[in-house]
Amino acid sequence: MEVSGLVKKYGSVVAVDGLDLVVERGSVLALLGPNGAGKTTTVEVCEGFRRADGGSVRVLGSDPRSPDLRARVGVMPQGGGGYPGVRADEMLRLVAACAARPLDPAWLLDVLGLSGVGRTPYKRLSGGQQQRLSLACALVGRPELVFLDEPTAGMDPQARRLVWELVGALRSDGVSVLLTTHLMDEAEALADAVVIMDGGRVVAAGTPAELTSPHADDQQLRFRARPGLDLSLLTGALPEGLRVREASRGTYLVQGRIDPQVVSTVTSWCAQQGVLAEELTVARRSLEDVFLDLTGRELRS
Amino acid sequence: MSGFAPGTFTPAPGRGRLGRMLWAQTRTEAVLTLRNGEQVLLTVLIPVALLVALSLMSVVPMPEPRVGSAVARILALAVISSAFTGQAIALGFDRRYGVLKRLAATALPRWLLVAGRVAAGFAVVAVQVVILCVTALLLGWQPPTAAGALWAVVLLVLGTLSFGALGVLLGGALRAEIVLALANIAWFLLLLVGGVALGVDGLPSWLVTVVELLPSAALAEGLQSALVDGSAPGVRPVLVLIAWGVAAGTLASRTTKLG
Ligand SMILES: Nc1ncnc2c1ncn2[C@@H]1O[C@H](COP(=O)(O)OP(=O)(O)OP(=O)(O)O)[C@@H](O)[C@H]1O
Ligand SMILES: [Mg+2]
User: Fold this and answer.
1) Which of A46, A212, B28, B63 is least buried, going by the fewest C-beta atoms within 10 A?
2) CB contact under 8 A, B12 and A173
3) Cα–Cα distance measured from residue A102 to residue A84, given in angstroms and rounded to the nearest whole number
4) Domain span holding position B231
5) B12 lies in some domain
């Protein structure tokens, strides 16, 4: 699947502004970005629900609006997807009836933990149960490519892990996946490729590893201590080129090339201040940090 | 959690058989209507209650034979209730819940999505007709001639299509709550002044001309000819129904939104 130079406007609002991305066959691409970044818009153009105002989109070699594509693609929209009064199992069976060789609906309901609510009307399912049913509907037709728009939104941790596992299984069975998320850990855990977007544009793209560790001297040391410590002495004691700041109340960040000497300097400074450094960790940048660096904003505002 | 056997999700895409898809969708939509309490109230209980009231009480003026005239009018009302009001409300909320998008994302062709809804509409009307006719027989209704019955079926089909198109026009374009309000108001107006409960006889002549051009009056009048007189409906009622249906259908195909 290939998107290049995609532009989509709603009146005067430019929701997607020259976006490029490629999903390789059998791989998982995560489209990551804050609310309003244009993720759903991008996905809906690829699903053929919206017409692009510019650029080109090819899905499995066809125009995304081609009717022949419908059977080959599974879609999990962001929210919704059942008649208000339909029972969960009826809805899944209806969608299964549209496919030539569907998965067994009863099995799928069971896998997604929905057997107990199979006879519950859609509007009385909880948000997370509706999401799971929607995922089941996306997968039941054995598609080649699936679009999952925020598949884990509103799910409890157990259901989230299940979705992660499912995405892993899809990938190893050769299904291509385009998913959107706000969750950095989700993108890092699932995706072969990550495209970070903001304001309708791509701000970074690559594998999670490429994005999170571009340079050896771009590591960080993080610790928690009493808020409001005076950092000038610490800055002075550390080698040139290291940046120190209180990233959020009580969380301190040292960024740059972190070696054993740096860790030792930090702990002895803490001892001088009479504070205990808690949760002291040395880590690669997370995708969260990448996003912050690129846009100057937190991902979740 | 031990994971999934390799090959569980190996792609095997393909479109289901058309007949099976049509059946699945028709069945689901018809069952949903008949399971919904408010829809049953609107499409079955109220028409049956009005049929009994019109047949037994002489508050509303009604040509003789009384039960026969009541059946004609209430069958017209039943079509308006299910094909128009019920359809519009259901569509409004289906859109709100994202069903149309969901189905449009499956291999179900668009024309089949429409065909399934139409077929479900006919199924519900058939159930209404059976229940109302049995009630009428219990009230002493003299069934019409074979020719009259045949014309009645033609008119019911035409009326269902026409009002169905109007229902889709309303339910496919506006917000669910607005659809709900408008569809109910329209139902009341058509019942009271649209030539359904009251014939056009008592009205001033300029108003008669207007009312006679409404699909509700056309359907009621046509059914009156077929069921009471056992004769073919006039040309005007048939043309009025076709004109409304074609106009509403054409417009609806442009204005109906999936979500
Ligand atoms: N139907 C619409 N009409 C007008 N503007 C819209 C419409 N849908 C989205 N937008 C605007 O387009 C921009 C992108 O929206 P989009 O839904 O694609 O974001 P998103 O990345 O999916 O956000 P979220 O994380 O909240 O789901 C937003 O500024 C939004 O206000
Ligand atoms: Mg979105």
Assistant:
1) B63
2) no
3) 24
4) 18-255
5) no
As given in the structure block, the two tokens for residue A201 are 């544009």
Question: Of the candidates A97, A166, A96, A173, which has an alpha carbon nearest to the alpha carbon of residue A131?
Answer: A166
Which of B 2-21 lie inside 8 A of A, CB atoms?
Answer: 3-4, 6-17, 20-21
SS3 A22: strand
Cis peptide bond N-terminal to B233, omega within 30: no
For A222, the 3-state DSSP assignment is strand
Annotate A238-251 with b (16+ C-beta within 10 A) or e (fewer).
beeebebeeeeeee
Measuring CA to CA, which residue among B83, B75, B49, B63 is closest to residue B198? Answer: B63
C-alpha–C-alpha distance, residues B200 and B194, integer Å: 8
Report yes or no on B178 lying in a domain: yes
Give chain A's radius of gyration (CA, Å): 23
Is there a contact between A73 and A55 (Cβ–Cβ < 8 Å)?
no
Query: CA-CA distance, A163 to A185, in Å (whole number)?
Result: 13
A174-227: pLDDT as tens digits: 999 999 998 888 998 899 999 999 999 998 899 988 887 656 567 788 899 999
Specify the pTM.
0.86
Residue B78 included in any domain: yes
Total domains in the fold of chain B: 1
Please tell me the distance from the alpha carbon of residue A206 to that of residue A227, in angstroms, as a whole number. Answer: 36
pLDDT digits (tens, 9 = 90+) for A94-152: 999 999 999 999 999 999 999 999 999 999 999 999 999 999 999 999 999 999 999 99
Residue A278 has which token pair? 């808690």
- The Cα diameter of chain A in Å comes to 71
Between CA A139 and CA A76 the distance in angstroms is: 9
- Judged on CB neighbours under 10 Å (0-12, 13-18, 19+), A300 is exposed
Q: Which has the closest alpha carbon to B29: B85, B76, B86, B84?
A: B86
Which residue owns the Cα nearest ligand 1 atom 5?
Answer: A10
Dihedral angle sign, alpha carbons of residues A139, A141, A144, A149 = negative
B7 lies in a domain?
no
Report whether residue A40 contacts ligand 1, using a CB cutoff of 6 Å. yes
Size of interface A-B (CB pairs under 8 A): 142
Quote the ligand 2 centre to A187 CA distance (angstroms): 15
CA neighbor of B98 nearest in space, from A246, A279, A77, A244: A77
Question: What are the structure tokens assigned to B170, written together?
Answer: 């309303």
Quickly count: other Cβ atoms within 10 Å of residue B206's Cβ.
Answer: 8
